[in-house]
Design brief:
The structure is a homotetramer. Chain A is mostly helical. Chain A has one domain: Tetracycline Repressor, domain 2, CATH 1.10.357.10. Chain A contains eight helices and no strands. Chain A is elongated and about 60 Å long. The two termini of chain A are about 30 Å apart. Chains in contact: A-B, C-D. At the A-B interface, α7 and α8 of A face α7 and α8 of B. Chain B binds a DNA duplex through loops.
Chain lengths: ~200, ~200, ~200, ~200
Amino acid sequence: MVESLAINGIDDSPRGRLLSAAAHLFRDKGFDRTTVRDIAAAVGIQSGSIFHHFKSKEDILYAVMEEVIHFNTERLRQAIASQDSARDKLRALLRAELQSIVGDTAEAMAVLVTEWRCLSDDKQRKALALRGIYEQLWLQVLESLHREGAFRADPFIIRRLLTGMTGWVPNWFDRDGSLSLDDLADIMVERVVGES
Amino acid sequence: MVESLAINGIDDSPRGRLLSAAAHLFRDKGFDRTTVRDIAAAVGIQSGSIFHHFKSKEDILYAVMEEVIHFNTERLRQAIASQDSARDKLRALLRAELQSIVGDTAEAMAVLVTEWRCLSDDKQRKALALRGIYEQLWLQVLESLHREGAFRADPFIIRRLLTGMTGWVPNWFDRDGSLSLDDLADIMVERVVGES
Amino acid sequence: MVESLAINGIDDSPRGRLLSAAAHLFRDKGFDRTTVRDIAAAVGIQSGSIFHHFKSKEDILYAVMEEVIHFNTERLRQAIASQDSARDKLRALLRAELQSIVGDTAEAMAVLVTEWRCLSDDKQRKALALRGIYEQLWLQVLESLHREGAFRADPFIIRRLLTGMTGWVPNWFDRDGSLSLDDLADIMVERVVGES
Amino acid sequence: MVESLAINGIDDSPRGRLLSAAAHLFRDKGFDRTTVRDIAAAVGIQSGSIFHHFKSKEDILYAVMEEVIHFNTERLRQAIASQDSARDKLRALLRAELQSIVGDTAEAMAVLVTEWRCLSDDKQRKALALRGIYEQLWLQVLESLHREGAFRADPFIIRRLLTGMTGWVPNWFDRDGSLSLDDLADIMVERVVGES
DNA sequence: AATGAATGAGGTTTCATTCAT
DNA sequence: CATGAATGAAACCTCATTCAT
C-alpha cells in the first residue's frame, strides 16, 4: 500500500509543508499570481526563508510536479498489479487516475496540468521524462486490450481521449453528488470497450 | 457558411489586429507572462496606444474570449442545421468543435480554456452566460440521441467527457499526421454510440 | 458697474467656457489631478481640440488666474471709489474681497491660491506683477487709516493678517448660514480698528 | 518640554528619515509632483524599498500629517498648562501655533494645509478626527476669554479668523527680519482683545 | 476649428531574490 | 536555519501633446 502522508506524497517536514501550501496556492491562483510571500505566509515563515529550502520559486513548482508524478506512477503500478484481466486493469487504471485527479492529490495534479507552461524548457524535459513512465503503464494495458479485440481504434489515440476525459473531471465533478468515482470509471470504461 | 475573416471572427481593424496578436501571445506564453508591450510590439504600435482600444489588459483577454465564443456558437448552430439525423448532428458538432479547437480559432480557444482564471469574477460571469448558449446546443442533440437509445449514460456526463476529449486534442494532435479531423470525429462518435 | 458675465469675468466664447470648466475642475480636484480630457469632456469637445485654444494645460491655469486677478482688481477699484472715509473704504475692500472669495469668482480665486505652485516660474512672475496692483489698492487705504491713528500695528502686517483671514473663509463659511458677508466684513473691520 | 527630535516629532529611524524627506518634498513641489523616486533618492534608497515602510505613496502623506498633528496637539496642551490667565493662554497658543507653522514643523504643517485634498476620503476623516482635538483646545481658551468679556464676537468665528491669519504667515514671514514671532503673536492677540 | 488615434515619457507599485545579522 | 530590509527590474497604466484627416 502506498503510504498516505500529509497532503499525499508529501511529508510533514518544512519542505513538505512548503510544497503542500504551494500546491494549494498554485492551484487556487495560478503560479504567476502566487507570490513567494503568499507561500511563506501560508506556512508561517518569512519570504526570505523559503530560499533556504528551494533555489527559486520555479523550483518549488517543479518539486510539486515531480512529487505528484512519482506518487501517482506508483499508484498506477499497484493498480495494475492488483488485477488480472486487461479489462479489470483498465478500470483500475481509470479509478486510480480519477483518485489522483479529484482525490488526494487533486491540487498537485491540477497544477501539473495548468501550470506546465511556467516550467523552464529544461525542467519541462525532466518532468516529461517522468511522465513518460506513467504513460507507458497505460499504453501496455490498452495495447493488450486492443490485441484482445476489445476495441478497434488506435490505443494511442484512445489513451489521449481518456487523458482528456479524466483531466477535465475536476471542472465539473461534484464529490458530494450522487455519481461516485467508481460509477464514473465504469462509464469511462464503456467509452473504450462499448456499453455492456 | 460562416464568413472566414483574418484570424477568424476577428477582422482587420486595429482592434482586430490587436486581438489576433493578443490571442497568439496569450496562447504562447500565457496571459500573465504576456506584457502589454509584447502585444503592442506585435502589432507595431507603442504600448500606451493599446489603451485607446481597450481599457485594460484584462479587457483584451475578455474580448478575445467573447469573440471566439460568439463565432463558434454560430458555427455550432450551422453544423446542426446542416444535418438531419441526430447521429449526423453529433458528428457535425464534434467536427465543428474540433475545427474550433485545432483549426481556425485554435489560439483563441486555447486561451479560453487556459486563461479563464485570469478573468475577474465579473467578466467570468459574463463569459459563462455566453458559454451557456453554446452548451445548450450540444445538450439538445445529445438528449435526442439518448431518447433514441443510442447510448445509456447520462447525456450531461457524456457532454462533459466529450468536452475533455476535444479540449485535450491540441496537446497531441498533429495537423500534418495521417489522422484527419474527420477520422478523429468518427472515433469520438464511437465513444458515444459504440463502434458501429 | 463691473459687467457680470458667465462665470464672472469670463465670457461665453468657447475660450470662456473652457476657462469656467477648468476653474471648476481645478478647484475641485486640483490642477494636477484634472486631466485635459476632463476639461474637454466638461465643455463637450475632444481633448485634442483644447490645443487650438490654449498652447498647454498650464496656459489654461494661467488664463484663469489672470482673468480673476483683473476682474477683482477692477472690483476693488470701484469699492474704494464708492466710499469717502478711510474706514468705509476698508469695509468696502473687505466686502469686495469676500465677494471675490466666496461669491461670484470663488472657484477661480481658490485656484489662484491653491494651484499657484503649478505655474512655471516665468508665469508666476507675470501673475505676481498683476497681483501687485491689487495689493497696492489695499495698502493705500490701510496706510491712510494708520496715519489717522485707527490702529498702531504696521499696515503691511495688518494686510497680511487680513489676507489670511479672508483667504481661509471658503474653508468654513456657510453661504446659507445666519452670518452674512456684511456681518463678517464688520467683524473683520473690528480686528483692525477695534470693537467700536 | 516637548522633546525636540530630528525634524521634530519625527525620529531618526528609516521611517522617520523617509517622513522628513517626504515632508520637505511635498512642501516644495506638492504631493502630486513629488515622485516616489524623488523621495527614495532623497534618503538614498531605491524606489521599491519605500514600500517596505509604507503601503502607498498616499500613506506617506497621511503619516506626515498624523505625526505633525499629534506633535503639535501636545505642544498646544503644554502651552495652555504653562499659563494661568486666559489672556496669557491665548498668547501662548498663538506663539505655539506660530512655532508649528514657521518653526520646527513648518514643512509638515504646510503639507497638512496644502495637500489635504490628496488624501482619500477615508484618511481625511481620520485626520479630521485628530485635528478636532487640537481645535478643542483652542476653543476652550477662546470661550473663557469671551465669557470674561475680552471680546464680543463669536469665539468660533474668532478661531476661524486666527486660523487664517496664522496659516498665511509662512507666505510672508521672514525669520531673519526684525519682526519676531513673539511680536507677531502680540499683534495677533490684539486682533482678538483690542490694542489698548 | 475639430477630431481621435498615436505617441512616449514617466508614474506607482509588485516581487523574486540577496545578504548582513 | 531564520529574518527582514533592500534591491532593481519590470509591470500596467496615464496623460499632455501632436498631427493627418
